[in-house]
Amino acid sequence: MSAATTDWTRRTAAELADALAAGEVTSVELTRAHLDRIAAVDGDADSGVHAFLHVDAEGALAQARASDERRAAGAPLHALDGVPIAVKDVLATTGLPTTCGSRILEGWVPPYDATVVAKLKAAGLPILGKTNMDEFAMGSSTEHSAYGPTRNPWDLTRIPGGSGGGSAAAVAAYEAPLAIGTDTGGSIRQPGAVTGTVGVKPTYGAVSRYGLVALANSLDQVGPVTRTVLDSALLQDLIGGHDPRDSTSIPQELPSLVEAARQGATGDLTGLKVGVVTELSGEGWQPGVKARFDETVALLVDAGAEVVEVSCPNIVHAIAAYYLVLPAECSSNLAKFDAMRYGRRVLPAGVEAPSAEEVMRASRDEGFGDEVKRRIIIGTYALSSGYYDAYYGQAQKIRTLIARDFDAAFEQVDVLVSPTAPTTAFKLGEKLDDPLAMYAGDLATIPANLAGIPGISVPAGLADEDGLPVGFQVLAPAMADDRVYRVGAAVEALLARTWGGALLAQAPELEEVAR
Ligand SMILES: NC(=O)C[C@H](N)C(=O)O
């Protein structure tokens, strides 16, 4: 790899777009640089970052060539035309496998593109490949992937977060300038926090879910994973908007997010009212997380914001409610993986003419991992007659109370802030046998999904005790995604002065491994 090639992987998407527009580089060169980087550091299930489950070098280069030809012909181009991207393996892609990190979908190649994928293709972004994830997005570490975990580029013995650890690690390791993630309870924001990248969960319904393999339909949202807030804004402006093919898609335009990010980057927050959520203020969390959070809040005050403390008392029940609503929805969603129509079919051993039920049982037994089975069992129980009111019904009521807490809070303040996650990246294997400990890490991210509001995680520096990234979360009312971008960009700009440039530049260099 030449030095110049390495350089292109270090640029932000906005910088790459400028370089393409200025004729300094071609999309083929950029795409090849990222493919080289993937080949050098991504490795496989046993070594390297392992952010990708499938790399599509040929497809990406063909898309890059087409982009270069359009540019040469003077055709109208999208701002990100020619800038490569990685896509979480939970979105349908024609011609490329979509496994959702599960054995049950091993080898499945969808016959259609998710709306988000179709938009990326139409805008000319070469798709580098599909990124690793916890099976069906269930998890906070990618250790529940059936294809082996992704490793955190800051320390390969640690988790990159989950479920979208592959997308975050790919961006953090300079394997892709942009990635698509999905966030049901934090799967974009928490990986962002622990890898030092930016992750955004848009307002529920702001980005189409058509072609997204649903984990929990009422919570899932597709969103950007990038290294800067401006890059996330460019990407959400592209993938967002109404889609008649998704019945929950909002038929209303969001304000320009790029404009909001540019405004925030001035670092002036005069007149903004910020609420620190009492229940998520970081008290009792990892000291380095709390310290970086408090310092960032102080910077907001210096930038002219008024900061008050706001209580959202029902948030303390968020995890309990989520881990009933989600299993209920996913147990129903996953019923479709019956090995009859598509996906992996396993014939039961020793049965000569197995019935459909026996094939389904064998396929689901072998095709699903432990965490998926756990949630299917919990969800089936919670929805069963006699228990519905006691569990699912109660959880839905708590959900409403949490949404009301946010409504009341946003009458007092413009945005709410908290640390994104209670700890920095933990060691691989540390929480694998303790599901409740794994779930507890979602405390700060889940409430936004339950309420349908937007949230961003922005890098807030490194924890003193382990030198690992900490995330700062900004939440805003539904449809006010521009506020999370404005404040997120301000935090980024104010903090860049503190640590002297890009946080990721401080990550250790990755050793080259064969892929
Ligand atoms: N899917 C998500 O957003 C992640 C969350 N940790 C979960 O396991 O449900």
Unreliable residue stretches: 1-5
Taking strands numbered 1, 2, ... along the chain, how are they ordered across the largest sheet?
A: 1-3-2-4-6-5-10-11-9-7-8
Shape: globular
Secondary-structure-derived class: alpha/beta
Arithmetic mean pLDDT: 95
CATH topology of the largest domain: Amidase signature (AS) enzymes
The portion of residues forming beta strands comes to 5-15%
Intertermini distance: 15 Å
Could you say what the CATH architecture of the largest domain is? Alpha-Beta Complex
Bound molecules: asparagine
Rg to the nearest angstrom? 22 Å
CATH class of the largest domain: Alpha Beta
Name the helix and strand elements from N-terminus to C-terminus, one letter apiece: HHHEHEHEHEHEEHHEHEHHHHEHHEEH
Number of domains: 2
Number of helical regions: 17
Query: How would you characterize the largest beta sheet?
Result: 11 strands, mixed
Number of strands: 11
The residue fraction in helices comes out at 25-40%
Within CATH, the superfamily of the largest domain carries the name: Amidase signature (AS) domain
Task: Characterize the structure shown.
- By secondary structure, the chain is an alpha/beta fold.
- Helix 8 packs antiparallel against helix 9, helix 9 packs parallel to helix 17 and helix 11 packs across helix 13.
- It has 17 helices and 11 strands.
- Strands 1-3-2-4-6-5-10-11-9-7-8 form an 11-stranded mixed sheet, sandwiched between helices.
- It folds into 2 domains: about 400 residues, Amidase signature (AS) domain (Amidase signature (AS) enzymes, Alpha-Beta Complex); about 80 residues, no CATH class.
- About 40% of the residues lie in helices and about 10% in strands.
- The chain binds asparagine (ASN).
- Asparagine binds next to loops.
